[in-house]
From TrEMBL, chains A, B, C, D:
The lineage of its organism: Archaea, Methanobacteriati, Methanobacteriota, Stenosarchaea group, Halobacteria. One of its GO terms (molecular function) is dGTPase activity. This is HD domain-containing protein. It comes from the Archaea. InterPro entries: dGTPase-like, HD/PDEase_dom, HD_assoc_2, HD_domain. Pfam families: HD (PF01966), HD_assoc_2 (PF19276). GO terms for biological process: dGTP catabolic process.
Length: 407, 407, 407, 407
């Protein structure tokens, strides 16, 4: 058994298959993948990695198993899945996931191949565990997959608390131990026991507050969009392919961007935190429906057209259209008066949060500060945006970040 | 200048009129008034007092004044009001406030008389401050009263964080420093600056989660109702009057209850934590409207009738009908796109929280465990309650408390 | 099983005999005994009680048992002893322990009688546990008594962290979980395993820093001495005897002091925090040896003589001569290179701390501020103190407290 | 003014010259220099950077200036020095500092050249600040240099608390705010005011406990030694020179080590955490004096000889002989009874800590696990070590780390 000191959960004990997996290059690699990618440019203390997060998820899974009374082979499978659940992440975690998905067809939780091969596959098989089954748990399959990836999974319980600890934003401080103690299975469904509607709501609300403040902070969105664009150019101008990119770590990608001619300008901007600025920042209601349906190539074309008209390099215009907000947690299941109910049906907060998230949705167009006014104007015309009250609304983000200095 | 070490805000510096006020018996008395009264029976660590809370409110007021650039006499007034804002509390804070209000016509924030007399009045006048003006600030009057008592007051900012620290329930952990930094006055109204809708929501949500978990926890409600009833008997059977009761501290009241024959049975129950149990616990929708309008004497009569039918002592039946939930925060003002808006109009969460709070509302009837079944049945008949699915719904409160052992 | 939320250890689970004991008046009474007594006058947030501390000690004992692999009857005994270890405390914990000891011959950990009688005795016997045996564990007897009361006991692990949490003084923040994990029994002795000399030192150092800053803070010492003296008068002038006093709680004692003519002046001083002041405060080296040997009655006589000469009431002069410092932890046992060694022999810090504590020792003479100069002069003469450089050295205690306002 | 959210100090406000400096590549580069280098291999959460630490040091300096009443130009200089104090660090901070010093003659706090050139120099001059003067403050020169680099500097106050927050080891949790409030200048010397001997000791003790547990943890020492050796080979086998190495960041160095043939084996070991193991680990008393005087080249020769005899590659034997422990803090100055005293003269703890640190000193010889026994034996002979009781004593490090799995 190994014992590891964690800044969030204190002492974490690792034994069994998880201890063997810990020493594999596949898991150790996560030490070099930052948990929140470019959020570090907003919250300077947010340098935590997927490695410590994976240890935390393993730990909470282990606690949940103890509470649920799950032991033996089944428990070993879940612990393995918890520790391995993020090995599919590329450099900067979610930041360039869309890009690698487009090219490889794989999201970060598509890990069957990774788990079946190399030393991870070997260790799993040595412990009589089927890599395909573990990969299924990582993807959220089956009764026990809900613990690893679902509305009440230990992944979220760890990252909310951990991101709060490292950013300094307290909103993620949920009562993880209470959640763990109130989990139970009813008819193979993972639910919270009676008396826990507020417990379920608290998880939802924590995410609802962390989202705009941390994960979707405008500076994080801008820098992430810049990183994604630069990585795309890296693929286009070097012999690095998307599969290779996906297996890089943060160091590899940053140095590749710094040392490739086509991306060194971006790398310099990133290193010196001279980020693009918002030329347009507007609400869902002002965006024509057809814009929401554009695919990647169509967006690239629009960006090129706008850049051309504005007489700036093509790389200097980025249009970012986020997906429409979903509210996955609405299907969290809670026991109320003896029956299992969907939180979405039980709690008026769920619908309100969905509406609130739609209200927070913004389309962004980013470019260099000096071109912002011109690009904004031309982009509005090109995209058919009719925005009352200025192209960039809510330009200030309060004091949560060093945003102001760059705008 | 005095410096005081606080477990929540670390070092607190007190100077000027506040330092002089600190040493008065009126303020020192708050050391003996528990902040959360009988919540201590649910959360054993919740033994903090109105004294440390008052220091905290003073400290946050001082921080807010620095951010707002308010200085001189005006600032001294607000600091004095912040330190003094709770001197009107009776023993166990809000727990018996309804009772003393009924008899004295004064709520805890009605402090004009207290501030005008004795050493507090003397000190205020020595510092050229008008006690009536300070009492007005405590009551929330005028532009600056909003800082002391209003939707964005420093009172709430302190108690949420402090109650979280002492109960161990993390939900109250707001970002107080951010709130302070985002306050501003526009047209004499205290508002949050642009970009702070979520900041305002976070304050709301913290309260919405602390409410059912801490402040309105069933065991806290039951014990509070018992304490109120016993205090009423104390007034009825001794020569202690309501004005005197209001100026007691926790020690005085507890010992008076222990040493008065009419209340010693209650005191024993309280000391040994042998609390009443819920005989009825039901939602707003099952409660006839006319019940909600009953006054105190009518309720007492109903209790007496039920006790009589159930053949238990009159003191052993308590009906508790909370006020219908309000959502005072809906009028929090936030700047959005350059205009001041009411949070209730801006944020879909406000209405949802109002609905959620109505959903959490419960009428309770409490009695001894052995009589619970009988009293419940008879009370339902007497009160005209038609409750499907049992008289006590959601009897379990999760693991937040030692509730289960008593029921 | 009951689950209790604690502000220090989060969720605490109680089952078995401990759960049954929890509901006894003997244990519930601890809710009304403050952990640190008059330290509250220095650190306003330090209002925690022996009840929550006892829960914490129970919890850490339970964790230690799991780490040590101790189960069954033996474990139940230790858990019971942990929960009960402080039931012998009188009001204000250690503050008046000397007084009640002088009159009853019992320190707080002499609980055989308490455990054998009443409902505690009944519950223990129902669970086939011998009250005498449990009382022995509380007193530190036998191999397992070391866990409850010894150099490596869970009592200290809880109170250091808890006192830090509630005072705001961080020095007590030890790594309790590491300590628990490194405990083992070798030849029936409780020791720390190899590689833990620093772990043992950290426990020592935490206490060494908390001592002068919290437990022996001058204001805490003065107020404690005043409380002890007032309690002595209470015994002398009423029909309350020492056995009764010992079983009071904080409320009882405070109200008794307030309502007894001979002590009401003290009670007023205490309530209004108008404390005595140091007339003399001097180091061990300036104190004649024979003074250190004076018994209680001889000290009282000296106080009377000084008061008489200074023409102040006898009750207004208090001489406090602390015991010479010991360093109990020097016998903490640690495994070094495979052998058990005494920390005192292994670590140069132990002797240094002993020396440092002697350096911190102070004799104090306390009186009203107005009489301080006169009493100091007369007391120095009467006590034969020859103090270079003034009667009160180091009069300032830094910023840890509101001391200054009273001096 | 920019406001930045920090996980340790909450909101940090930056204005004036510091705000301008914040945006320079020289300061932004610190985002990519880890604060504790390879300590991350022991404490997985320790991924904080020199950037956030520099912000923290700036913040504490700003607080200290406010307490000391220093304003204007002098204050701007000190704030600039605080923010810039670590810009001279190479990749992995102190880990390869010895190496770059040997080749460049510069330690990390030798920053005159760096501050005089480029945009930092420009900004300083624009603000009428002399780069040479600021560099002097960074080096600890003059009265105000003591605040930036000295026994009571804000550097240490930040790193102890920050390292505790990120490793999870609580020992560094000092009371920074108290320290700041107790600083004063007497005769141009920075001292702690009366009543603060324990405050000074607490700083000392925090470092004394963090040292062996974190900074000098055996796994950190081994991995640091490996990194230093690999970096040395990088210089020897590529055209990267020491000046260039010193200006790399962590990404550059890691990728360079991975992509250089002579160092890729090390890089693999590092990435997969397959570290060397202790072949010898022995106390000062067993080490001949002349070994302590060997210079770098002589050590390399010894390593080569041992490797040759053991028939392992030369790169696989590392001898690490730390400097003899010093106790810089012994000259901390504290006011006692009105005079300035050296803490070393006042506190018996200082000498004891010095002795304790000598007791913790270890010479280490590291190699691959499979060769450890053989290399240990041969190295002992070659180095003339006569070690009773085995070559590796105290092989276990308790549970603070994942050490065990690698040995």
């Amino acid at each position: 058994m190994a014992t590891i000191k964690d800044s969030v959960h204190d002492h974490i004990e690792i034994s069994g298959v998880a201890e063997a997996l810990l020493d594999t290059p596949t898991v150790q690699r996560l030490r070099h993948i930052s948990q929140l990618g470019t959020v570090q440019l907003v919250y300077p203390s947010a340098n935590h990695t997927r490695f410590e997060h994976s240890l935390g998820v393993y730990h909470l899974a282990d606690r949940a198993l103890a509470e649920l009374g799950i032991e033996g082979r089944e428990a070993e499978r879940i612990r393995a899945a918890a520790l391995l659940h993020d090995v599919g992440h590329g450099p900067f975690s979610h930041n360039i996931e869309e890009l690698t998905y487009r090219k490889t067809g794989k999201y970060h939780d598509d890990v069957e191949e990774l788990l079946a091969s190399g030393d991870v596959g070997e260790i799993l098989r040595e412990h009589d565990l089927d890599p395909t089954h573990i990969a299924g748990l990582v993807a959220g399959d089956g009764q026990f997959g809900q613990l690893v990836s679902g509305e009440l999974d230990v992944d979220r319980m760890d990252y909310l608390v951990r991101d709060a600890h490292h950013t300094g934003v307290p909103y993620g401080t949920i009562d993880a131990e209470r959640l763990l103690r109130e989990l139970t299975f009813v008819d193979n469904e993972l639910v919270l026991t009676e008396g826990n509607v507020q417990t379920a709501e608290s998880l939802l609300l924590a995410r609802a507050l962390m989202n705009p403040t941390v994960y979707m902070h405008p500076v994080a969105r801008i820098s992430k969009a810049m990183l994604r664009r630069a990585s795309e150019r890296l693929l286009a101008t070097t012999d690095i392919d998307a599969h290779e990119l996906r297996r890089m770590d943060d160091h590899d990608l940053l140095v590749a961007l710094r040392t490739t001619q086509a991306t060194e300008a971006f790398a310099e901007r990133y290193d010196e935190r001279r980020l693009f600025k918002r030329a347009i920042w507007t609400e869902l209601q002002h965006v024509p429906d057809d814009l929401l349906d554009l695919d990647h190539d169509e967006l690239r074309e629009l960006e090129a057209t706008i850049a051309d008209r504005a007489d700036v390099p093509e790389t200097n215009v980025i249009i970012e259209i986020p997906d429409e907000p979903s509210m996955r947690e609405s299907s969290t299941r809670v026991v109320v008066n003896g029956e299992i109910r969907n939180l979405g049906a039980q709690s008026p907060l769920v619908n309100a949060l969905r509406t609130a998230q739609r209200g927070q949705w913004r389309l962004g167009v980013y470019t260099t500060p000096s071109a912002a006014e011109r690009v904004g104007r031309l982009a509005a015309a090109e995209l058919g945006l009719d925005i009352p009250g200025g192209l960039v609304t809510e330009s200030r983000q309060g004091i949560h970040a060093t945003l102001d200095e760059f705008e």
